[in-house]
């Protein structure tokens, strides 16, 4: 970026909240992906919509690229600066603005941490259901921009399903107040939904109004051992028929090995099996504990499960969740190349076996870790970098290999990104999930909101 323009930006930005030191450029210029060389020109910390409008105007005038940045837990390099962009951190917009107990809504600024929202809702006797392993660091603005999902989607839906209002500053500097917290609003096209999942390409999300719900009653957590993956769907179906499920997750035995070593925790039961399902169920209703036990026994009788454990306390439920929630962190030292793929739930088992077969035939020396939100059709495949392979070589290998994996995804009519977005990492594979017509329409929408291409240029497409 031109040094003279950078100097002007630093001097003129309202509040002068800019950082140019190397440490900040590296820290704020990236997210959780580890495959891009960070090249940010400046980090800027707006405190208001007014600051953002000013910034957008300056960027349009001087043709500067801006990268919106939230909690930087993204897994697709959507918040990574690689081309000398100015990173715009939303972390100073961190206020909880209004809880309305009649409407059961919470209005917050975009930089509020997801877990702060969960805690605040709990203090009000309410519940914010979107949850995942990074909720202690991610921002609600980032969650909206990626339409984050997580572990309880089968019961409560994605972030999109919780958002009843948004305020945004577009890449043209307009302020839009979208849907304003309404439940019913049939006034033409709902632009709110364009911004949900837009990965910072259309505008800055500055405020989010969320719908809160009554907290669920007591939950029980089970971990079940399966030898044969084809048993996973009958297990899901039989439990879902009798009980209200909040989560239906899965992980492979290799994933269990990694998480046990990293978190220093014990295996859940004596037998080791190829796969494990983690199920969270509501046990509030009378008779539900008996129904749970019957489902458990029935799954044994059918030979679907080989062993299993059921939590008998909240503490035990929490420690069983660690087996699933700790996996991402436990494999980070292997610089994993992550696939976040989905198919319709009924196709999951067949799809996983087909992909796993391709992985092991093409790259027999790579270690693969499978886990994911199998109850909603979302699988995370993580290819671990062999110790001696350079990161760049590993990335190139995985990129070429991705055509095979995403080819399978397309064959099964699935998605190449279930909940992590496209960012930089998956943009060359978008055509496996979106038709040329859809991509062209998306590009036209981007142009409408961002005619100067200043917001997150080069991301998504
Ligand atoms: C251990 C771990 C586990 C995870 N588990 C899950 C999971 O189960 N489910 C899931 O969905 N995700 C998961 N993620 C991915 C990640 O946490 C989510 O994508 C999250 O929503 C990103 O939020 P963030 O604030 O960190 O966004 P960032 O990484 O900072 O940004 C993500 C994208 O949003 C844009 N953006 C950020 N803030 C704004 C804003 N205010 N306005 C406009 N654009 C903005 C950025 O430009 C970028 O394109 C996980 C990540 C980790 C590290």
Give the arrangement of secondary structure elements.
Elements: H1 3-12, E1 18-19, H2 22-28, E2 40-44, H3 49-62, E3 66-69, E4 85-89, E5 96-100, E6 105-109, H4 114-123, H5 140-146, H6 153-156, E7 163-170, E8 175-178, H7 192-195, E9 203-211, E10 219-226, H8 232-242, E11 245-252, H9 253-263, E12 275-282, H10 288-301, E13 307-310, H11 314-325, H12 327-331, E14 337-342, H13 348-362, E15 367-373, E16 378-384, H14 391-411, H15 436-449
Parallel strand pairs: 2-4, 3-4
Antiparallel strand pairs: 1-2, 5-6, 6-9, 7-8, 7-9, 10-12, 10-13, 11-12, 11-15, 14-16, 15-16
Helix pairs in contact: 8-10, 13-14
This protein binds flavin-adenine dinucleotide.
Flavin-adenine dinucleotide (FAD) binds next to strand 3, helix 5, strand 9 and helix 12.
Could you characterize the architecture of this molecule?
It is a single chain. Helices cover 34% and strands 21% of the residues. A hairpin with a 4-residue loop joins strand 5 (96-100) and strand 6 (105-109). The longest helix is centred in the C-terminal third of the chain and has 21 residues, at 391-411. With 461 residues, the chain is α+β, with helices and mostly antiparallel strands. It folds into 4 domains: 3-92, Uridine Diphospho-n-acetylenolpyruvylglucosamine Reductase, domain 2 (2-Layer Sandwich); 96-211, Uridine Diphospho-n-acetylenolpyruvylglucosamine Reductase, domain 3, CATH 3.30.465; 219-328, 2-Layer Sandwich (Alpha-Beta Plaits), CATH 3.30.70.2190; 335-420, Alpha-Beta Plaits, CATH 3.30.70.2740. Strands 13-10-12-11-15-16-14 form a 7-stranded antiparallel beta sheet, sandwiched between helices. A 5-stranded antiparallel beta sheet has the order 5-6-9-7-8. Strands 1-2-4-3 form a 4-stranded mixed beta sheet. Residues 31-32, 67-75, 78-79, 90, 110, 132-134, 138-139, 141-143, 145-146, 148-150, 199-200, 204-205, 328-329, 419-420, 423, 456 line the site of flavin-adenine dinucleotide.
């Amino acid at each position: 970026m031109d040094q003279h323009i950078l100097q002007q930006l630093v001097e003129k930005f309202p509040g002068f909240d800019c950082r140019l030191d190397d440490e900040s450029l590296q820290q704020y210029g990236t997210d959780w992906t580890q495959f891009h060389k960070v090249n940010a020109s400046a980090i800027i910390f707006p405190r208001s919509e007014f600051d953002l409008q000013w910034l957008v105007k300056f960027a349009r005038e001087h043709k500067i690229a801006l990268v919106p940045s939230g909690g930087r837990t993204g897994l697709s390099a959507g918040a990574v600066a690689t081309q000398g962009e100015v990173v715009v951190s939303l972390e100073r917009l961190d206020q909880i603005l209004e809880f309305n107990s009649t409407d059961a809504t919470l209005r917050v600024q975009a930089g509020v941490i997801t877990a702060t929202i969960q805690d605040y809702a709990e203090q009000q006797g309410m519940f914010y259901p979107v949850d995942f392993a990074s909720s202690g660091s991610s921002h609600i603005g980032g969650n909206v921009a990626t339409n984050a999902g997580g572990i309880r989607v089968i019961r409560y839906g994605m972030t999109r399903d919780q958002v009843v209002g948004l305020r945004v500053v577009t890449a043209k500097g307009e302020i839009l107040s979208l849907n304003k917290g309404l439940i019913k609003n049939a006034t033409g096209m709902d632009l709110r939904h364009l911004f949900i999942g837009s990965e910072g390409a259309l505008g800055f999300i500055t405020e989010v109004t969320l719908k809160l719900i009554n907290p669920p009653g007591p939950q029980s957590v089970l971990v079940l051992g399966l030898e044969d993956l084809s048993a996973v769907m009958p297990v899901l179906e039989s439990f879902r028929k009798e009980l209200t499920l909040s989560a239906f997750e899965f992980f492979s035995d290799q994933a269990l090995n990694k998480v046990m070593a990293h978190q220093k925790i014990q295996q859940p039961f004596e037998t080791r099996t190829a796969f494990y399902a983690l199920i969270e169920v509501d046990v509030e209703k009378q008779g539900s504990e008996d129904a749970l036990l019957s489902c458990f026994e029935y799954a044994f009788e059918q030979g679907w499960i080989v062993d299993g454990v059921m939590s008998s306390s909240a503490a035990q439920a929490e420690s069983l969740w660690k087996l699933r929630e700790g996996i991402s962190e436990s494999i980070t030292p292997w610089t994993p190349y992550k696939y976040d793929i989905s198919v319709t739930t009924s196709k999951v088992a067949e799809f996983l076996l087909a992909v796993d077969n391709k992985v092991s035939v093409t790259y027999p020396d790579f270690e693969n870790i499978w886990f994911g939100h199998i109850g909603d059709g979302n699988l995370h495949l993580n290819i671990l970098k062999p110790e001696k392979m350079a990161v760049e070589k590993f990335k190139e290998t995985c990129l070429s290999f991705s055509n095979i994996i995403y080819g399978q995804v397309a064959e099964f009519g699935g998605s190449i990104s279930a909940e992590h977005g496209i960012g930089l990492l998956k943009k060359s594979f978008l055509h496996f999930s979106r038709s040329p017509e859809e991509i062209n329409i998306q590009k036209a929408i981007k142009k409408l909101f961002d005619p100067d291409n200043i917001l997150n240029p080069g991301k998504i497409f």
